[in-house]
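pasting for ref
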Amino acid sequence: MKFEKRDLVLIVGLVLFMIGLIPFMGAAYAAIIVIIMYFGIKIYVAKRQKSILQDVGEGICMECGSKVIDKKCPNCDDLKE
């Protein structure tokens, strides 16, 4: 998990969420919840990005939207041949 620019927005949002939780529970509990949320979101996003990269592969065909394999579209190139 590497730090990216959009993580700053996530951190700011979670800090504001923590400030909102403090009146209802202790600051330590709010901080623990926010830290768990941060790592949970980071893990979810990493898994989702990995899934998308596996689905896309080399790219997506502009004609039909299917996955490009060996620089050829399995749907469109079969029709042209």
